[in-house]
Amino acid sequence: MLRVLCLLRPWRPLRARGCASDGAAGGSEIQVRALAGPDQGITEILMNRPRARNALGNVFVSELLETLAQLREDRQVRVLLFRSGVKGVFCAGADLKEREQMSEAEVGVFVQRLRGLMNDIAAFPAPTIAAMDGFALGGGLELALACDLRVAASSAIMGLIETTRGLLPGAGGTQRLPRCLGVALAKELIFTGRRLSGTEAHALGLVNHAVAQNEEGDAAYHRARALAQEILPQVDIASGMAIEGMCYAQNIPTRDRLEGMAAFREKRPPKFVGE
Q1: CA pair distance 89, 24, nearest whole angstrom
Q2: E strands within 20-161?
Q3: Residues tagged active-site
Q4: What is the pLDDT of residues 111-127, one digit of tens each?
């Protein structure tokens, strides 16, 4: 089997200003790595908050928002891949321990920030892929739903489980899940808080690919990276728009363009001459 090697740049940590981190070894909870060599153009976001199973806490959300703001301006980012540095977990959802300490007003503000985070992911200018190698519950699944594509390990567990906690999906789940699966099925999954395996999610169309998990626990990541490699040769939208502009400029002085407009105005079939 021919194996293509890629050059890996080191992970680049990002620390939200003025916040205490719960990342591995006290480091950042969100880290970034741009791949090099044949994989140049693929950027990875590593979610790395092991003590809280990548729960969506204040620091985590702040760092992810800041990371996205920086990457959005980086024209070298052609595909953005979300993965976990915590084995067996993609993102466990809301940090309920942290939320218990918030006032009602603070909860409202935080959920609004969380909704903004998911919107930022959904509006990211390059294709986004979620590599779900473990649990993706509540807000964790909402994060994956905000991505363009989702790849899951067959053993991964996912679901919008908020109703089993006396809550409801508040970061886009009620809007994105019906658009992905249809209204009736989305209602069933939200009302019941049902958990799905990666295999079940693939059968429903919730994820694009489901793969058997490997010993390292990163099979979904490897499949997601292979998918990102397939996307790389495609022209990014900025370059595509520039090409479109150049082609349109060539069309402006042609006789056929003038003939087409005249035919429309005169309500007759155009007579193109190829000039």
Answers
A1: 14
A2: 30-36, 42-47, 79-84, 89-91, 128-132, 135-137, 149-153, 157-159
A3: 94, 139, 142, 162
A4: 999 999 999 999 999 99
